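Action item from last week, closing it out:
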Amino acid sequence: MLDALTEVELFVNAFVSVYILAILAYILTTWVQLPYSLRAAQRFLSDVCEPYLRFWRRVSPLRTGAIDLTPMIAVFALIIFDRIFVAVVERLH
């Protein structure tokens, strides 16, 4: 049976993975005009991802014209957070 720390580690890892997929889906949906039936999904992705991306847009100087590199920074930050969190939890075992 898994202990509580391992369960938290698995939850954080799953959350980070799903959030990265949501960011990638949001980016892809902003590039194309979606049919009306899928716009609710696009609004949901915007509501979920945009606050986190807006934070990185304010912090990052990498927004140059039409190319916005802040989602890449945001994804890297999530991956780094996940790795640091796993390392800390593993040290607590």
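Closing note: The chain has three helices and two strands.
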